[in-house]
């Protein structure tokens, strides 16, 4: 069993990005600029956005954080999105999810200029990804594919089971892995809450991507020997062993699954760091104007 070290790979990619940014700055006198809109004070969102700001510093990017209180109106948020769309100095920006219930999430995301949509959530980017055209790919699927690539994990002709059908992870990663590409060329099965006998599909899988948000769902009895397991789950569970009072638990029961795997990602330290660095990669692409010009 080989542990897939997302933290190590993410650090390598950040160093590569920082090198490119230095060259861009020397030749053009401009740094890629990432902006983020954060609504409210959700603990997970605060932590994630703070991490993005730190990543920008590490990569040599300029970063801007725009904050709003929980009771911000939808029109005020839309107005800020339009403002960032028109700001020539901002190369890419994100609206941190989830948003408060009184705000239409789809309406906000569709208002973002797809050429600055470094989260890859705009329908134009999703559609282009689905048919294999250049686009911004959502960060977690981008990170997963990059891990498979950097560890030289064979995907062509393999059976990949994706657990979960979210628009953020399940659907896009399934689409990426079935495309004619490397990594790619998989036969992909997507399982979800209405799938009967999920165990049957998992036992037939060469690669399993667990993105259900169900701590410990995938256990050793559901995995065949030699499988590759990518754990996307990051659920906070209570813990008396940490200062914060919680710890992150993946969708995979690591202790029972790991001994059967050829490769497996840990939680934390697997997909999480790659999600963050994939956003940096998209921001670099936005700054270089290599996708949409």
Summed up:
The chain is of the alpha/beta class and about 290 residues long. It has helices at about 5-30, 45-60, 75-85, 105-110, 125-130, 140-150, 170-180, 200-205, 255, 270-290; strands spanning about 1-5, 35-40, 60-70, 90-95, 160-165, 185-190, 205-210, 225-230, 235-240, 245-250, 260-265. Helices cover about 40% and strands about 15% of the residues.
So how many helices? 10
Q: How much strand? A: 15-25%
CATH topology of the largest domain: Rossmann fold
Number of domains: 2
| CATH classification class of the largest domain | Alpha Beta
Main sheet characteristics = 6 strands, parallel
Could you give the order of the helices and strands?
EHEHEHEHHHEHEHEEEEHEH
Q: Can you lay out the helices and strands and say which pair or pack?
A:
Layout: E1 2-3, H1 6-28, E2 33-39, H2 43-59, E3 62-68, H3 74-86, E4 92-95, H4 105-111, H5 123-130, H6 139-150, E5 159-163, H7 170-178, E6 187-191, H8 198-203, E7 207-210, E8 227-231, E9 235-238, E10 246-249, H9 254-257, E11 261-264, H10 271-288
Parallel strand pairs: 1-11, 2-3, 2-4, 5-6, 5-7, 7-8, 8-11
Antiparallel strand pairs: 9-10
Helix pairs in contact: 1-10, 2-10, 6-7, 6-10
